[in-house]
């Protein structure tokens, strides 16, 4: 099959995160068919090269985030609304179990609610799973993947703990959030915060009115840099980890949502849903050394989540349809899209 710069599959609705397996054969996409209690979550397995659907698995709770352990062949699904994690066999699609992380609380109507889950990060060497929770305060849960049990719950001194990335060599978990200290550095063995990083842009007295909210982060483990996206400003922050200092602020025409570091190509990739309405979303590819923009790929309407192939030469993106009939791009019954981009022949 000849290389195609861009393929799209628009057979789904309610798409969220996407993950690629290590052998390069499959990509997994999480979706929902609504937010009501009676709605379901789904995991779609697609052929990584053609994007043809191979399997659809219904899971017991709404599916948003994904984390894949290729060693144990376990796909972890973040059930945001229920504060839980569903473990699925990535080969057979059999649901192994549900791990309840948050305990029920009562809202002002007396109804049971749960702290939400956000990012799901897998630590394959230690068979652990890290899950963030963007509340006030934020939380981080650490799960034993062998036993499917919760081992640590960390309560953040910040708010909206969301983005996460793991440095396996250093055994350190990084969590992006809001508040005075927008990045936490966690020792997962101890279940404790060992360091905090700050932009210095939120005064202590204004902790709950944070200047930034880092919804997604990415690590350059070799170069010891951290890239943070999703701030209230239209820019990505770059930290030098040894010094703990912000060394670059990369400006864009609209805020970045997801972010991925590609060590193979020396690039940083960001998704942008588009500011305002109707908004035209796009993906940016940056030179990771100079921080200069190499190319922009228009992907209307709203690019959401990113995943890179194991060889770093292919990018997968979920793209959401217009949400409202007030948007110029709105179409009745429009589908969300999975896009496959060959980075060697990507259109400019």
TrEMBL record:
Family matches, as Gene3D superfamilies: YVTN repeat-like/Quinoprotein amine dehydrogenase
Superkingdom of this protein's organism: Bacteria
InterPro entries membership: Haem_d1_sf, Host-pathogen_enzymatic-act, WD40/YVTN_repeat-like_dom_sf
Protein name as annotated: 40-residue YVTN family beta-propeller repeat-containing protein
Lineage: Bacteria, Pseudomonadati, Pseudomonadota, Betaproteobacteria, Burkholderiales
């Amino acid at each position: 099959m000849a290389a195609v710069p861009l393929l799209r599959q628009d057979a789904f609705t309610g798409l969220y995160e996407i993950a690629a397996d290590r052998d390069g054969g499959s990509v997994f996409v999480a979706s929902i068919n609504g937010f009501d209690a009676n709605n379901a979550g789904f995991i779609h397995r697609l052929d990584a090269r053609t994007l043809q659907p191979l399997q659809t698995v219904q899971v017991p709770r709404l599916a948003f985030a994904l984390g894949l352990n290729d060693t144990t062949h376990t796909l972890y699904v973040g059930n945001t609304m229920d504060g839980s994690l569903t473990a699925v066999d990535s080969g057979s699609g059999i649901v192994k179990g549900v791990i309840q992380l948050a305990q029920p609380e009562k809202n002002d109507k007396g109804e049971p609610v749960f702290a939400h889950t956000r990012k799901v990060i897998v630590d394959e060497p230690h068979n652990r799973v890290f899950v963030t929770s963007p509340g006030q305060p934020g939380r981080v849960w650490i799960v034993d993947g062998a036993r499917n049990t919760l081992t640590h719950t960390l309560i953040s001194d910040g708010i909206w703990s969301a983005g996460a990335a793991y440095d396996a060599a250093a055994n350190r978990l990084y969590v992006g959030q809001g508040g005075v200290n927008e990045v936490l550095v966690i020792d997962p063995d101890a279940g404790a915060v060992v360091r905090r990083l700050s932009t210095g842009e939120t005064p202590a007295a204004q902790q709950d009115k944070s200047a930034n909210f880092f919804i997604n982060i990415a690590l350059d483990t070799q170069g010891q840099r951290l890239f943070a996206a999703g701030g209230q400003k239209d820019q990505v922050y770059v930290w030098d980890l040894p010094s703990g200092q912000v060394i670059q602020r990369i400006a864009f025409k609209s805020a970045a949502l997801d972010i991925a570091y590609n060590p193979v190509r020396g690039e940083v990739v960001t998704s942008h849903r588009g500011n305002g309405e109707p908004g035209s979303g796009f993906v940016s590819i940056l030179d990771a050394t100079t921080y200069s923009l190499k190319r922009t790929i228009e992907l209307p309407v709203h690019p959401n989540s990113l995943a890179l192939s194991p060889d770093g030469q292919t990018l997968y993106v979920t793209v959401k349809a217009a949400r409202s009939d007030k948007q110029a791009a709105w179409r009745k019954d429009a589908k969300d899209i999975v896009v496959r981009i060959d980075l060697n022949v990507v259109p400019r």
